[in-house]
Amino acid sequence: MPGGYAGKYLEVDLNREKIKDVTFSSEILEQYFGGRGLAAKILWDRIGEKWDKVDPLGPENIFLALTGPMTGIYPGGRICCSGKSPLSNGTVGSTASTEFAHELKTAGYDGVIVTGKANSPVYIMVTDASGEIRDANHLWGQMGEETIKVMNKEVREELAERKPDIGLWKEPGMIYIGPAGENLVRNAAVMTKLSHAAGYGGYGSVMGSKNLKAIVAKGRGPLPEVDAPEAVKALWRRAHRYLIRQDSFRRRGTGYGGWLFAATMSSEPVRNWQEEWHDERGFSGPMFETEFWVKKYWADFNCTMSCMKVSCIKSGRWKGDITDNPDYELQAYCGANLGIFDPADNIHLSALIDNLGHSGIGGANTMGFAAELYQRGILTEEDLGFKLEWGDAEAFDRLARLIASRQGIGDILAEGTYRAARKISELKGVDCLQYAVQVKGIEVGAHGTRSDDDFIAHDISYAVNVQGGDHTSTATDGYNELSGSVFSDSAVICNFCRTPQSLIFDFAKAITGFPITIERWRQLNGPRIVTLQRALLLLGGPDVTWTPVKDDENPPRFYKPLPTGPSKGKTTDHELVKRKRLAYFETLGWDEQGVPKIETLEKLDLKPLVPSMKRLRG
Amino acid sequence: MSSIWIVRDYEKCSGCRRCELACSIHHEGWMWPEASRVRVFMPFPGVEVPHLCAQCDDYPCVDSCPVNALSVDEKTTAVLVDGQKCTGCGACIKACPGAVPFIHPRDNKAIICDLCGGEPECVKVCHEAGYNALRLVKERMSENRKLFARNPVEVAKRLAVKMFGEKGEEVIL
After folding, report:
1. ipTM over 0.85
2. Residue A240: pLDDT over 80
3. Based on the domain organization, do A178 and A308 belong to the same domain?
4. Closest approach of chain B CAs to the CA of A492, in angstroms?
5. A129 in a structural domain
6. Average pLDDT score over residue span B142-161
7. Which CATH number belongs to the domain containing residue A23 in this structure?
8. How far apart are CA B32 and CA A106, in angstroms?
C-alpha cells in the first residue's frame, strides 16, 4: 500500500444492507490519487456504457465521500463528495473542510462508497471496528443544527456504552443533509459543521435520494503511515510556518469580500448579475467583524489558516442565527445578489440556507433568478404567493423554505436554475434562460468574467470547465490548473492552505512515495482526470445532454455590457472565448468539438471510453 | 512548590488541533489525534475545548491508582504514568474531576499530559500560530487548578452561552 492511504474503502449497499471493504490497486491510486480523480474513475468503472441512462437521483447512482492520500496530513483536510451529478449529469469533485475526513482515515478508511437506496431513512456509522447502517427516522426532516445536536450526543453516548472504560469519547466527524437534500432539491449541498458545505454538484440530493441522512465517523487509530515520515514531519512544520505568515488572509478570510470584490473588481453578483458593482460600505468587512464575529480565528483539523470566523446574531429579529463569516461567496450570493446589503439579513439568510442544507451559491443563485423574473413580471405575486422585492430578507426567507420543502413555486425552483428556467420558459412562453447564470446546469460562483479584474474568473473559466460554474476549480489553459485545483481536489486538501506548489508536490511525494511531479500532473494525471470528466459530462443524460461547443459557453448575461461602476461598458470578449476554447481543447488532445480524441484516450489509459466517444462523434 | 502549568483560554482555541498533532508526534512519533495528551473537543461547531490534565494540587488520580503507576514529576509537577505498572483499569479516569486521562488506543495504558518534561509541544505550536489558547506559566501550586479539571462538554455548554448568548443554552444536548 502506498503511503498516506488507510488501505481500504467502505462500500455500503443500501439495497441489500450489505457492507464490505474494497481496495484499489497502487496503479489506480497513483493515476487518480483520491477524491475527484478517483471518484470519476470509480463512477465510470461501475456505471460505464449505461451512463446516459442512469438517473442521478435514482438508486443506480453511486454516492462517494472520498479522502486523498494527503488528507489530514497536509494542512487543511477535506472530504470530497461525488457521484453522477443531478445538475450537470457529469461528475464534480465537491469538497468541504471537516473533521469527518481525518476521523474516517483514523478509523482505517479512505472513503465511503454508497450504492442503492435504503427503505427508510438511515445513517452510516464508521468506527475502527467497521461500518454499520443505523436508523435515522428521528433525524429525517431536521434542520442542520438539530441534526448536529442530536447526532453528537447520540453517537458519543453509543460509543461510550460500547467501550465504557477507556475515558471520554469525542464527538464524531460527520457529513449530513438538511431538508433540501431530503426533498431532492437538485442543488442541495452535503453539509458539515453547520456552515461548511460540499456545495457544487448537488450531492445533497443524491444522499437524499438514497434515504441517507448522514455518515458519521470516529476513529482511534493514527493517521496512515507515509513513505518518508521524517520528511513529512519537516514539511508539515514548514507548510504551517508558511501559512502562519499569511497575516491578512488569516485575519479576514474572505469575510471582507462583500464590499471589496464589488467595489474594487466589479465581479460580484448584484441582483442576479444585472450588475457586478456596488459601493455599499455598510456591507464592508468591519461591519460584520465588529458586530457579529464571536470567534475571529476558526479553523478545521490541521489548519492554521483559520480563514473561517464564527458569526452570531445575538439580538433583534434574527436572534440566534449562527454561521461562519459568512465567507465572500455567501456574502455575495445571500447578500448583494438578492439586493441585500444589511449584514444581519445576510447572516440570517446564509445561516438559513446552511440549516436547510441548500447550497449557499446554487440555491441563492436560483432565488436571485426568481427575483429577476418577478422584477420583469414573468413571475407574479400570484405565482409566488407573496411579493419578492430585491432586498426583502423576509421574502427570501420564505422562498428558501418553499424551495427546500418543494412547496408551491418552490417545486419548480428546486430543480436548480437551469432546469427551472427551462420549465418557466415553457409555462410562460418567455425565454428565461437568458437570465439563468449557470454553466452546464451548475450555478456560477460569485466571480464574474466581464470586468476581467477578478482573480479567478476570466473568459473560458466556466465555459469549458468540466465542473461547469464551479469557481473553486476553474479552467485556465488545460495545463496550469491541472497541478492546481485538479490536483488538490484529488489529493483532497484545501485550496486556501496554499503553499508554493513545489512544497505541495514534495509533500505529496514524501507521503505517497509515488514518482510524482508537477509536470507529470500537468501532462498525464491531470489530463486523464479532466478528460474522463469531460467524457462523462458529454455522455450526460437522461434528462439533459449537452451539445459540445454550443453549451461550452458563458451564461448569456456575461456578454452584456456591465451597466455600472468603474468597469461600466466592459464585457466578456466572445472572440477571445472562441479562440481560447479551441486552444483549450487542443492542449488536452480533444477535437474541435471538445470530444476527446482516440489517441488521447489511448495515451491516458482511457481506452474503455473509445466506443462511447466514437458514438458521440457520430 | 513552584511549577509550570498550561493556562487554557478556550475562547481563543481555533480548533486547528495542531496541539494534538504536535503532542502525538512528540510522544508517539507520528500524527495520532486520539493518542494525544491534549484532545480538542467540539460538542458544537465553533465551540472548541482543549482538554488536558490540570495538575490538581491534591492529585486525586495519583491517589486512586491501585498499582501505584502514577507519580508526580518533582521538576514540573506533571503526573507521570509508569507504563510497566499501569493495568489500564481506568481508576484514574473515574477519580479525575474532569475525566481527563484516557486509555491509549494501542497500548491500553492510561495517558496523561507529562508537560513534555517542561517544554510542552502543544504550547509551542499554539503560540507559533498566534492563538495562545494554551500558554505556559510558572507559578506556585494552587487549588484553583482543579477548576480546569472539568468535563469538556460542560465547559462547552458555558462557553456556548458566552459566544452565542441565549441561543448558546440550547446548542449542546
Report:
1. yes
2. yes
3. no
4. 17
5. yes
6. 95
7. 3.60.9.10
8. 8
